[in-house]
Structures are given as structure tokens and as C-alpha cells.
Write a structure and sequence with these properties.
This protein is of the alpha+beta class. It has one domain: first zn-finger domain of poly(adp-ribose) polymerase-1. Helices cover 35% and strands 19% of the residues. A 3-stranded antiparallel sheet has the order 1-4-5. A two-stranded antiparallel ribbon has the order 2-3. The radius of gyration is 15 Å and the shape is globular.
Length: 125
């Protein structure tokens, strides 16, 4: 059974071919391609090398990765997790499963709950 907290993503026919997926720790400061925050030296992150109109490398911090793994079981577009998640929270009026929220890292959970709070505040204005 699919969770009601799965973000639906419409895909076109243009598919990505993954070549390598690794979960290294940063040896130098990297940038998360989802939230644009620094991935600091020694921090774990997901590195995916793929082919899509040429070879590309995508880096995802642990926080964005937890959002992706919990809420994007049907797929995602690289670089759009934060935007799609915020849209999803807005579309469902902030009504997310507590079970799903608990699966997130603390930082990701705080970001999601901040967005839920913004939705609630807007509805009471």
C-alpha cells in the first residue's frame, strides 16, 4: 500500500541512466544540489553519477536524502526536491503523516515542520 505522503511527480519520456551511486564522506566542502547548503568535510552524502545529455554528478546531503527516501518513493527530479516538497505540503494543507515525519533527519524534519507551520499560519490569516 502506498503512503498518502508520497509526492507525485509527472515524468516525461527523457530518462536518466545512473552509472554510479556512492555514499562517501566529504573530503572537501561540497554543495548539496537540492538545498544548496555546504556539505562539510567528514559529513556523509549521496553522490550519483548519471547520464542525461552528457555525464553529470549530483550530490545530496543526508537531510535532503531523507526527504527523498521518505516522500519520493515514485521518483524525483534532481535539484527539485525542496520545491516539490513545499508544493506537496501546500497541496495537502500541511496534513502529513507523523510516521513519515519521524523518519526524517532532525534538520529535514525541522524544515518540513516549518513549512507546515507556514501553511497553517496562512490558513488563519
Amino acid at each position: 500500500m502506498e503512503c498518502a505522503c508520497t509526492v507525485g511527480v509527472d515524468f516525461n519520456e527523457d530518462h536518466v541512466k545512473l552509472n554510479i551511486i556512492t555514499t562517501p564522506f566529504a573530503r572537501r566542502v561540497e554543495i548539496c544540489n537540492e538545498c544548496d547548503r555546504d556539505i562539510h568535510v567528514g559529513e556523509d552524502y549521496r553522490k550519483e553519477i548519471f547520464e542525461h545529455h552528457g555525464r553529470s554528478i549530483h550530490r545530496t546531503c543526508e537531510d535532503c536524502l531523507s526527504v527523498r527516501e521518505v516522500f519520493f518513493s515514485d521518483g524525483w527530479y534532481y535539484g527539485h526536491i525542496c520545491e516539490l516538497m513545499n508544493n506537496f505540503i501546500s497541496e495537502c494543507d500541511g496534513d502529513l503523516s507523523i510516521r513519515c515525519i519521524r523518519e526524517l533527519t532532525k534538520t529535514a524534519r525541522d524544515r518540513v515542520l516549518d513549512e507546515v507551520e507556514r501553511i497553517y499560519e496562512r490558513s488563519y490569516e
